[in-house]
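target protein:
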Amino acid sequence: MEFLSRTLRRLRLSMLMAAAVPLSVQLHAETFTSEASQAELVELYTSQGCSSCPPAEAWLSRWKDNPELWKKVVPVAWHVTYWNYLGWPDDFSQSRYDKRQQYYKQLGYSRSVYTPEFIVNGREWRGWFQREALPVSEKSVGILTATTDNGRFKVDFVPQDTDADDYRLYVAVMGQDIVSDVKRGENAGKQLKHDFVVLDYKMFAPLKHSPINGKYLWQGDLTTMKNAADNKAIAFWVTRGTDPTPVQATGGVLDVN
């Protein structure tokens, strides 16, 4: 009887502990690792109010079934605000995404600001309009590894260029399999589908400016970032200084169920 009583007490305690864990919290660790060769950070600047954007978003969505996803290609879709004046406010648009796109132009990395616009590894890419293949980087830049667990992340980067410094980490939480019924604007009456939609992103400085055992290290809290969708993905990429050009990137789908 005493053994049965102890067993029941342990069972009740386990049930209470399980009930105390929010469903939105990741219950196990996940690790995302790049290869040594440079992955392509493919940025799409888009809007629900732009009639020429749905085909570009459909092209980006096709990467979901590509085996090179997250290893060779890390897609992110930034929804901009400058189409909202037509009467349909894009729920995912943020003015700081506009500023990111404008910054590429200020640096001379893009000739103009428009939608749909692709930026691949920090440079404007117009090949999509001619149905060209995505450019492939042959550079070996180092391995980026990210681990997420219970709403937190740890990242390390081992660069090939040992003389470089001032690395910065960017983390973007993205929505997947999103369907929007657009009522006004150029896409009025259409049902649009979105993937890799940036819901929120942040920049993090490394724990130390110099590497520790050859690694640059970061850690942070994901729960402070906006989580507006049930199906989520995450992207990590590193840059140097104030230059937005990605050095390396990785990512994957978060299991938050």
Notes: The chain has one domain: 26-254.
